[in-house]
Amino acid sequence: MLLFAYKMKTATVRRRRGQAAAFVEDRAAEGRAAFPLAELTDATGLSAIAAVNQLRRLGNRVRRVSRPHPFFLIVAPSHRTMGAPPLDWWLDDYFRWLGHPYYLALLSAAQSYGAAPQAVQVHQVITDAPRRGISVGRIRVRFFVKHGTERTPVRQPARAYAPLRVSTPEATALDLVGYASRIGGMERAAETLVPLLPHMRVSGLRDALNAERRTARAQRLGYVLERCGAGRLADAVYHWLPAKTLWCALGRGLGAPPARSTGSARWRVWTDQLEQGV
User: Fold this and answer.
1) Residue 87 and residue 123: Cα distance in Å, rounded?
2) What's the rounded Cα separation, in Å, for the pair 128 and 3?
3) What pTM was estimated for this model as a whole?
4) Strand-pair partners of 154
5) Does 14 score more than 90 pLDDT?
6) How many CB atoms lie within 10 A of CB 98?
């Protein structure tokens, strides 16, 4: 009787040892690229510690997104050299698990429209709270914070592998101007905005402006659009602006223009900090 009980216990332990591997294989077969630890423990009955230990034994088949977060990526053989599945396969799942809004933004969003003049090495994501960057395998993600992230107009890319929120071309243009100082300056923002122009529409621009409700940012965008030859879009921004606006620098700052400054009376933007290429 004791021998039988021992054999049953041993068999149960052996079965439990392979539960994480079986779970990962099942999720991969379903086309899943990521999962939170709680999903694994709920499905298998393993404790969190036992589940993590089993996942560690899977080696490069599974990667943890970040140390503080028990959220894991399933690395298919075709992605082993990259060390992780593509970001657009799991970013939406990750933020759904976090419970925060997000969208692919700035240079990364422009690249998704084929409008980035240079290859983007670090993915740029906007969300509603400060968050440390992610480095998993060869994937690098940098986060930017914006209040009202959930209001920003987004769209789902065509033929995407998984759900993904990407800012519309018009919202991307507003963000490029708004975050110019953090992505290489206004010159780079304008350089990226120019190939984005064919994708922009007046109706979409109005939607982005109404969602953003940032007058100074709109002034800067209108000025840049005008300088880039997009008169119809610039006029749409101008008609959206309130009757009275404060002067603002093309970079940051509000108030009266400094002495001997150059600027645009139409947009009430002074341009002493303007890079030569804009």
Assistant:
1) 8
2) 59
3) 0.87
4) 167
5) no
6) 15
Structure tokens at 18: 């392979």
Q: Which two tokens stand for residue 7?
A: 């054999």
Using DSSP, state whether 194 is helix, strand or coil.
helix
* Cα four-point dihedral sign 18, 43, 59, 9: negative
- For residue 183 the two structure tokens come to 């992505």
List, as one string, the DSSP characters of 209-244. HHHH--HHHHHHHHHHHHHTT-HHHHHHHHHHS-SS
Best CA proximity match to 192, nearest among 120, 251, 102, 86 = 120
Question: What element of type H or E holds 30?
Answer: none
Is residue 13 predicted with pLDDT exceeding 80? no
> What's the rounded mean pLDDT across residues 145-169?
95
Ramachandran assignment for 184, one of left (phi > 0), alpha (psi -120 to 50 degrees), beta (any other): left
Spatial CB neighbours of 196, under 8 Å, sequence gap ≥ 6: 110, 113, 115, 169, 172, 173, 176
Residue 240 C-alpha from the chain's centroid: 27
The neighbour count for residue 254, using CB atoms within 10 Å, is 13
Other C-beta atoms within 10 Å of 272: how many? 13
Tens-place pLDDT, residues 94-118: 999 999 999 999 999 999 999 877 7
Q: Which two tokens stand for residue 210?
A: 């109404």
Arithmetic mean of pLDDT over the chain: 89
For residue 6 the two structure tokens come to 């021992």
Residue 41 contacts by C-beta under 8 Å, 6 or more apart in sequence?
47, 48, 51
Nearest-angstrom CA–CA distance, 249 and 237:
17
Domains in the chain and their CATH numbers? Answer: 1-85 (1.10.10)
